[in-house]
Amino acid sequence: MKRAGEVLSAILDERLLIKARGYSRLFAFWTEAVQKNGIAAAADHSRIKELDRGMLLVEADHPGWKQILQTKQGKLLNDFRRRFPEMDISGISLMLSRNEPQADTDNAEFAEEAANSEPAAAEQVAAIENVQNTDISGYDAIKDGSFKESLKRLEQSITDTKINK
């Protein structure tokens, strides 16, 4: 005859094992989900970091991959909800990895790889590069004239304050 502790331990171990298998399937499904949504190359540049209170936290290694994933975020969420209804996934949160910041040379590598992966990704890369290559900085980027003037006055006020101290 088994002791109560042994029975409870076996039950709890089995529940933990089932839960662990579910999480393992969830994390492994990422590659399938991005492939299904036409962005297979993103699987090499992103991963599920964790599932926290219904939010699927996904980490990308480059801002461009994050933007591409954002375009498919709703479809990815629906796929995860259908595949794992028991996990009550309420959303996907995309974030950049906390590794070393990407060098500018990585942008060319990102663009080449994404452009070669899928036609839709190539269009998205072109749009991202268009924004990144636009050389508008400072006040020239602001279209609203009154807002631009307000910011200039604020800057002058801060500069005057620093000089007077």
Spans of at least 5 consecutive residues whose pLDDT stays below 50 are 101-105
Q: Helix and strand succession?
A: HEEHHEHHH
Name the beta content range.
5-15%
CATH architecture field: 2-Layer Sandwich
Cα-atom Rg, whole angstroms?
Answer: 24 Å
Distance between the termini: 83 Å
Within the CATH hierarchy, at the fold level, what is the topology?
Answer: GMP Synthetase, Chain A, domain 3
Structural class: mainly alpha
Largest sheet: 3 strands, mixed
Helix content: 55-70%
The H-level CATH homologous superfamily, spelled out, is DnaA, N-terminal domain
How would you summarize this macromolecular structure in one to three sentences?
With 165 residues, the protein is mostly helical. It has helices spanning 4-36, 63-71, 73-83, 104-117, 119-133, 145-164, and strands at 46-52, 55-60, 91-96.
Note down, in words, how this protein is organized.
With 165 residues, this protein is mostly helical. Helix content is 62%, strand content 12%. The chain has helices at 4-36, 63-71, 73-83, 104-117, 119-133, 145-164; strands spanning 46-52, 55-60, 91-96. A hairpin with a 2-residue loop joins strand 1 and strand 2. The longest helix has 33 residues, at 4-36. It is elongated, with a radius of gyration of 24 Å.
Which terms summarize this structure?
165 residues; mainly alpha; GMP Synthetase, Chain A, domain 3; 3-stranded mixed beta sheet
